[in-house]
Design brief:
Distance between the termini of chain A: 35 Å
Number of strands of chain A: 25
Keywords (chains A, B): FAD, Flavoprotein, Membrane, NAD, Oxidoreductase, Transit peptide, Transmembrane, Transmembrane helix
Structural class of chain A: alpha/beta
Strand content of chain A: 15-25%
Oligomer: homodimer
Helix content of chain A: 25-40%
Largest interface: A-B, 66 and 66 residues
Catalytic activity (chains A, B): a quinone + NADH + H(+) = a quinol + NAD(+)
CATH superfamily of the largest domain in chain A: FAD/NAD(P)-binding domain
Radius of gyration of chain A: 22 Å
CATH class of the largest domain in chain A: Alpha Beta
Family (chains A, B): Belongs to the NADH dehydrogenase family.
Strand order of the largest sheet of chain A: 5-2-1-9-21
Protein name (chains A, B): NADH:ubiquinone reductase (non-electrogenic)
Shape of chain A: globular
Organism (chains A, B): Tamlana crocina
CATH topology of the largest domain in chain A: FAD/NAD(P)-binding domain
Amino acid sequence: MNIPRTSFPRIVIIGGGFAGVALAKKLSKQEVQVVLLDKHNYHTFQPLLYQVSTGGLEPDSIAYPIRKILKDFPNFYFRLANVEEIDTEKNKVVTDIGKLKFDYLVVASGSTTNYFGNAEIEKNSMAMKTVPQSLNLRSLILENFEDALLTSDLNERNALMNFVIVGGGPTGVELAGALAEIKKGILPKDYPDLDTRMAQIHIIQSGDCILKGMSEKASHKAEDFLEKLGVQVWKNVRVTNYDGKTVTTNTDLTFETATVVWAAGVKGATIKGLDAEDFITRGNRILVNEFNQVKGFGHIFAAGDIACMVTDEFPNGLPMMAQPAIQQGEQLGDNMLRLIEEKPMEPFKYKDKGAMATIGRNKAVVDLKRWKFQGVFAWYVWMFVHLFFLIGFRNRMVVFVNWVYNYIRFDREARLIIRPFKKKLKSE
Amino acid sequence: MNIPRTSFPRIVIIGGGFAGVALAKKLSKQEVQVVLLDKHNYHTFQPLLYQVSTGGLEPDSIAYPIRKILKDFPNFYFRLANVEEIDTEKNKVVTDIGKLKFDYLVVASGSTTNYFGNAEIEKNSMAMKTVPQSLNLRSLILENFEDALLTSDLNERNALMNFVIVGGGPTGVELAGALAEIKKGILPKDYPDLDTRMAQIHIIQSGDCILKGMSEKASHKAEDFLEKLGVQVWKNVRVTNYDGKTVTTNTDLTFETATVVWAAGVKGATIKGLDAEDFITRGNRILVNEFNQVKGFGHIFAAGDIACMVTDEFPNGLPMMAQPAIQQGEQLGDNMLRLIEEKPMEPFKYKDKGAMATIGRNKAVVDLKRWKFQGVFAWYVWMFVHLFFLIGFRNRMVVFVNWVYNYIRFDREARLIIRPFKKKLKSE
């Protein structure tokens, strides 16, 4: 890869997610060369992907050009690349656009959907981890309703209008709530010639509660909210398969549906060459020490979802969420500068800022350290926090306009099938 | 197709563009059944597609769900369908989702890119008539700059940074201006390690002026504006071929480029079964009388780009633009109601509201009937008119936010490669 060598040490960062961007920002204007590699040319604000899938937001408002984030930093290089392998002996990363030597490497490659080895579910269900995936889901939902109009087979029509969400974490809960609001507010107007009351939204959770990482109060209230919205919540049910028509479970329950959204798990997006058994831990994550160093290396780090950092409070590793990623990225930046200057690094301490999820208009749950609350105020807090963490003034303004409009008009106007998912356009 | 028969006459409209939507709105709440067919589930505001291609606007802000436009009209049916054939004997349209009988038919299928029979140009160049096409162009432009970073071959790098726009109409001129502003304002910041001064923007026009349909003053001023922005304007040059690498012309001029945008012509998007030689006229348009009736039929109409309505002022047919389409759609609505009530129809009279084009910030040309002006004020008028004609309050707000932001910050933030055009994403 065509990047000039300078006298500064070269830090290669794999991934422009929360951890990678926070780290790169910390390293800006320092005496290091930073090369950021990502397969997209934009940073994705993943917490709002479900709003893209449900037509509430345009994808462009939750994505931000990576080049722009670091445009004022002269020693910053971005390359659009798929990293294929890490050569830890020669200190090189191998990508689809060539090889690159590094002095320091930070793997911030994030996570990917975990199908727990079930290839049929992987093939037939939808994921929602990236912008294109979310747009595919948006198209599929809308295409299903268009197709429901065309069939006179009642079972087929019901299957087209049934939505099964597997996984009761924030993603599943937020998506279910948004779908329920579409069912109530938009479908009857858009499809007057369809009995949209038949549309069903199921959320299937293998454990005995939804929003497992949050307080009992939040979990209960979220379930209440979902049920008020007409979502059917199934607990202690584990999905065993989906063949494209029928969801089977470990109980007698089955679901006929054309749409399964798999939000039941994520796993670290490991890279060949840095996947030795002795440091890959549960969830396919890379075990790191309190300085984000990968076991056995002083100059190779991992941060964010891919990194499994064990603390007293989190014996299975910090949660795979935005906050630990941002905090690790920031601290790792400081630590790498310390390391280069041969000063002692400081151990990472996670500041748990709490968790939140929104279920629908005026319905959210918020767990702060000392204060847990639910309802309208929680909903405002949720919106404020998400606007605050969104990168870019324009994005914030556009999201704000959309939210105000959607709130006042009970609407979601981005219900556009721009790239059909089921059938390709004959001509574009 | 599964649409109930009522006692009301059924009007089938093919196409949800300016003409189709204006017509459907006129027919709403009348004693007719309206079935609108379109291959997209949204109306596209085509005049702003070039801003999507250049990252200035998100596609969702210039598209509007067709179902929403007519949600309060109980006798309105929309179907997402490709119309394959019109059976004028049995009064049926044949589509990919089934057949449909009509009492009245309005073909408002618009226009498509005219390559004048050159299959190689069609294969290798980009068009900008639909949202997906515009997004493809956006991806290609950005991918080219990413690729330019990777090559050490100077000729290849220049080809990746050269843009050839064929056609000096409003589309070509507006796109060229937008690319020139990107070159000036964004590329040097985004690609500090690339000599973006080498990027060239060419506009090739076969005639002896650009913006042919406008006043001489507008044409000259637009050319001035383009030249000030660094666009190279080639007049009296006709492109003869583009093999994916080299543009050849009828002169000695050739251009090495990875990106050709073909904006040199459009033609009517005719449909099999309604393409008899005796009424298909130049530009593949359907000749209609002053009531938009297709020759030989009393109940089959054509409106908008596809319809060639000859007037004293426009012996080759009304221009293929938004205004004639909207006006025809509206008047045709009134006329169809008159026809159904067996009242005499009124001949269409085109109210020429003028034409306008924008070249860049503070740079536009406006021709009104009595007043032609250029520059800053023209630019404000251009923006106001486009915001006014855009459908939907949310769209107007989002476009407005983007424009204010882009103006103040000299920026275009939607420079995102969401669906790569050149190479497919390995995993999304």
